[in-house]
Fold these 2 entries.
Entry 1:
Amino acid sequence: MNPLLQQIQDRREFLRSGVRYALLGALAAVAGALAARRTSQSRCPQIKLCRGCASLPACSLPQALEIKAAARRS
Amino acid sequence: MRAKGSSKLQTPNFRATPDPKPLMEGSRFWKLKLFHCFAGVAAGLALLALPLAAHGVERFPPPEFDPGYKMPATTVPAARAELLSYVDVAVLVAALALASYLALMKRSRDGLLALSVFSLLYFGFYQKGCVCAIGSVQDAALAVFNSGYVVPLTTLAFFLLPLVFAAFFGRTFCAAVCPMGAIQDLALLKPVKTPSWLDSALGVLPFVYLGAGILFAATGSAFIICEYDPFVALFRRSGSYGMIALGAAFLIVGIFIGRPYCRFLCPYGALLGLVSRFAKWNVTLSPMDCLHCQICDTACPYGAIADPMLKDPHPNPHRRTRRLIALAALLPLLVVLGGWFGGRLSVPFSRMHATVSLAEQIAAEDAGKPGEPTDASKAFRQTGRPVEELYAEALRVRGGFAIGSRWFGAFVGLVIGATLISVSAPRKQSVYDPDPADCVSCGRCYIHCPKEIVRVKRIAGKNVIPLTPVRGG
């Protein structure tokens, strides 16, 4: 291959790699931030299905406490 | 017709010859035509009949009970075990790895087709289309903009894993892992090629939908991508009449136009296309010894094969350069105009939020405007909460929309400007090769490219076919 063309290809591949790893880095940063928030707060696997959740008896989130109190009242 | 195997050259999906009629007897040709017509109409009617079955549950009003009747306690089905959601993630990883292997190393259309059927059954009908990578964009957006929302780990995995795979292997998620792509791929019976200008114009829509999905999720208004998912009602065999009819309509259109939702609406596909442009490996044909036979271009039902620019088709290259400079200058203007227009839309957009909608209803009722009170307004009044508090909350939400809508508009302006530039810019490609952003790695081109067939036969003795070369490398 023409050395000049090869050089251009190499440069293009270098730039593509740079963008690729920057994107992956950004994704990792977002994932890390969201996962860290997840571990720093109470975790709820079924946030929309509180009443049917298997974790409800042991759950101490406000919504779960409300549901359990309502169940006791009825 | 579907591809039967990868070992021999088959007739492309589109007519490579101008008219197949002379190739067979006249009466047989028309019988085949009639059969295709009847099969298409029967499939369409069967799909349209689905909503009737689902609609049956809403036909009768609830009965009126005696005053002494005691309502039984509401029961809900047990939630899915948490362990199973981790199994889903493991299946997703395995499916992505297998799809990448089949698309880039094994280069097997049959394998991808089999994996598509599995994904449709597992992620579609068994998992009922949820959690899905497409909808997980909204979870991620809500979690980023709302510190009170904790995104489940499995949802985060569904959002990230296909993007990570796309950064290395292209859109292999779309190839055979996404159930929505799989159902459309299987429905494609009689592909019709759409003009490239229409592809380019409609290609803006997924980005608009992505922007809107993020805007409404980030403001906590709605998960519109899930709400208007055309196939989830089919996967659940239940849903509103409108959504099942929409899903059926997409499938009927998908008989002729390859993957209409994926190409012209899917917001996650837009993200994957962006990442895939920078993928380490992508689907390629035989870049060094392309025959320019155009069979791959004819066989690709998604218009993803980028035509080579053998000579500059523009009569005046200077004029083209001037046009490119003008478009580049227009880009900031489009962004600013989009931002301005988005700002104008912030008030109607904000009505998607339950608090704003309720505040407007309460204000209208208090002002004595004609109209019945809604269930929400009645419930609000029963709480005894001060109206001022509701108005303040609605104003806060509307403030968020004022900023978000401007960003959304600017983003749409940027996408339109970038699309105009990309269609005007000259391509330096000299062979027929799949466009990394548009190619969904379905593998149809492999079984049609004569050079690829020869290549596969030549190295058939080896157990594993070498990984495809880097595009352009």
Entry 2:
Amino acid sequence: MDISLKNVEYRYSADTPFERLAIQDVNIDISSGSYTAIIGHTGSGKSTVLQHLNALLKPTKGTVFIGNREIKAGRKEKNLKGIREKVGIVFQFPEHQLFEETVEKDICFGPLNFGVSETEAKKRANEAIKQVGLSEEILEKSPFDLSGGQMRRVAIAGVLAMEPECIVLDEPTAGLDPRGRKEIMDLFYKLHQERDLATVLVTHSMEDAARYADEIVIMHKGTVLQKGTPNEIFSDPERLLAHGLDVPDVVRFQLRIEKTFQTKFDRICLKEDELINMLAAFLKRRGAQ
Amino acid sequence: MESPLVVIKDVSFQYDSQESLALNQINMEVYEGEWLAIVGHNGSGKSTLARLLNGLQFPKEGSITVAGITLAEETIWDIRRQIGMVFQNPDNQFVGTTVQDDVAFGLENNGIPVDVMSERVVDALKKVNMDSFLDQEPHHLSGGQKQRVAIAGVLALKPSIIILDEATSMLDPRGRAEVIETIMKLQKQDKITVISITHDLEEASRADRIIVMNKGEVYREGTPNEIFLMDEELIKLGLDIPFPIKMSNKLREKGISLGQQYLTEEELVAGLWTSHSKM
């Protein structure tokens, strides 16, 4: 299922004294099975874009295509349930949304709401809990007796159990320690690959965007500043820095080396080992001269 | 050696709902004017420790002394006057409708006269570089700005110690840098003792001293230099190796000699330059 935003504008509290333009002229294409990272500062409009991906917000101008549905500005939309079932959003700190008595009931809540039978919902809960790396025994526990990391996994399982075709992740690793962060990111990458699950990652981590995404969209002041593959995006790091945006550690390090040694390597490296090889060869050549 | 400002002695703590100890026989000291970073994986007990220091929880065993006062039900308020806390979520600790109201909140609660109050509010906001935002409303501020206002709210009460409990973990990189810079300035210029609880090792590398917590115990204590020599051991503890150290290690593996350990990227690049420009 493809999702695309065409000339999308969104104003909060439109036609009131509190009206505020959040995004404008936004064009983004997310094709089925792709991995897209949306990056930008706080206030750049990335959360507003995110909420258009499953029609939680409807554009005040332009059109959003979600699969075969068309969400157009100024038109009343009915029956958005089908969209919400296909595009699952994992919000920031999703563990705050757990509420049921048991983990199983919590995971089943979504599927049951979409009209799945109880047997099927339980079956899905069972699969989903394993997918997020937890054991079946946890299903019987109260979600509130779990650790923070486990709670987050349960919340993610709740979204997976809806069997979405696209999953949208809003800063999924906020507040986790480095190991937890890596585990969660690797988990999503595995799901993306194994299930061909289209993934949209909203983040301010340039590292994660460079490592996992096929396509990066940079949001700045409510509109798309740049989009392309990680290689394309980071081939011009100065441009990002000029907009107050970050680049991955490894790119920043390369720029610092280039500046100090007054040289230019033939390409920007996104992988640490790639840069180290190039740098080591460069230093040895210098030593030999 | 100076006498410690905070002494934690044989402290253990257990949450009612849990079977194992959240903190097990903790001993540590915090010295006046230092920046101490406490690092550890999620659930290592570092935030519990912060809560104990401020009397939000009481130890099951052991004692905590702050500026000579031993923590107990009766002394909580004396201790809270000494310690200001800044928490993780910038949105959960903004109580005022404007920046200056927010900073004034703690002062009002402490019955500070109005004229003294307005002076202290402005002073505190100057220290975090937010004094041009007096009448701004919270939703106009970025996460980093909100956290700086939270720090000002704490500063206005003139504590001797500030505890930052993962205060940068929800911020974007720019916000994080703003807050870290503010902390550095407060510690250097205003001689405030800082305890920062974090799992961001880049942040911890700015501290004078680091304590690594693991499973409710003090695992290691040392200067950033000493701690970062732990390398792979840090990863086993659920943490990470700071980027400059990781790059140094990789360069050494490729046969590039580096005289010393570099904690920052600037130092590493400068070190490479010095050792490779004279040949």
